[in-house]
Protein: RNA helicase
Amino acid sequence: MDHLFELGPARLTTCVDVWLHLNGLDAAQAANVLRKHYQIHVKGSNVTPPLQGFEEVKKKRKFYEKLLANTKASGFTTPTPVQRQVLPLLLHHREVLAVAPTGSGKTLAYLLPIIIHAKVAALRSHQGIKALVMSPTRELAEQITRVLLRLVQGLHLSCCLINSAAVVAGTDFSKTDIAVATPLRLSKVAKQTDLSSVRYLILDEADKLFEEGLFKQTDRVIKACSHPRLVVALFSATLPESVEELARSILRDPVRVTVGQRNVPASAVEQRLVYVGQEAGKLMALRDALRSGLRPPVLVFVNSRQRATVLHRDLALEGVRVASISAEQTPAARTDAVDRFREGHIHVLVCTDLMARGIDFINVQTVVNYDFPQSAVDYIHRVGRTGRAHRHGEAITFFEEKDSGQLRRIANLMQSSGMAVPDWMRNLRKEKPHLKQLKHDKRKAQAAATATGAAKQQQLGQDRKRRKPT
Ligand SMILES: Nc1ncnc2c1ncn2[C@@H]1O[C@H](COP(=O)(O)OP(=O)(O)OP(=O)(O)O)[C@@H](O)[C@H]1O
Structure:
């Protein structure tokens, strides 16, 4: 997977795109060569060929020039693999289930097509919200809106983040062309906001949106988007089989796009496991790592709000420029912590899994799993906060004796993304004597360890099937 981004724009142009031209391949052959090269796997009927460059989306209308210029001005000159395949599919009104590694550019893959759709619809004087993006957290919705606003500059489109401030200010969302929101906020405004004009519904971090806590609200919003030709697209870096089944029940003739291997950490992240003995060893290990040159900005994940507060306090006492962020803080406090971290005033941000998904701190050098992640999916998203775009990143996961049961799963994930992992870790459950050895010889272990729902478905499916086919 290393070359998904690493080849870089210049090499991509010389080695693949020009090669395609020189060899005069027909469209289907060229599509296959491109897909093979970029490790794009597709499943579905009549799949549109991948793009060779952003210029291909340019049409006669003037606004395409402007949009392309904005895209380039934002630093996006060459499409990433997921953008190459998803962009033309959405432009052809195909429903999509896209699974691509963390930091591989999924946001732009859906923003460009929905901007094009919204602009064309606005030029035809269509009223109401034309495209809607749902994301599981407020922070991610804010980030998506920021990217969106950069891309639509000068296009005379109205884009809006539906948050509490906008609701309090009495914003008339019917005058919005593209809206971004969390399912919680959206389900609250769905009653007074007409979503029947929404033609594109994007579910970012889709597997999270289908989880227990968010499912009801997500479902409510999907139902409210009643346009007969609604196009739904789902994006995530992880898609467990069970969620895929549920997701498929709401999609019509979808194309599944997978980039690289499914459900593995991004290969640009160098991952290490560090044995810390017990709880007390964690702070010592983090302090040592910070002293011995752990490069800031550093994102540190813990498993609860309380633990975030305690670690924040402990690090502040040591003179570390630290902030913490968790769901119990006010929106203003959360935004402030994120801004200070982005601007470099804060070197270490302690956070819960609230920040694990989608958040793009482009310069984060290191992710520390201070508390062992509660699932393989959490691990993939957490470590994916570094190593974004073509950058290199480092992820360190602390583990103590009580984490041994979960260790094997994470070790396997690390191995599938190309990391060297000691054999004893991958065989942990089978070879119990190693657990004993771990207890009896902590030092030795430390050296070794430091290495580089059916009812829901039916409900959702039936609601969608009732609509006329596209
Ligand atoms: N075509 C491109 N060229 C260069 N950089 C890009 C391109 N597309 C996106 N990026 C950059 O790559 C980074 C990751 O993009 P994005 O946040 O969309 O990733 P993602 O796939 O949604 O990740 P996650 O699964 O973590 O949400 C961003 O900083 C973005 O600016």
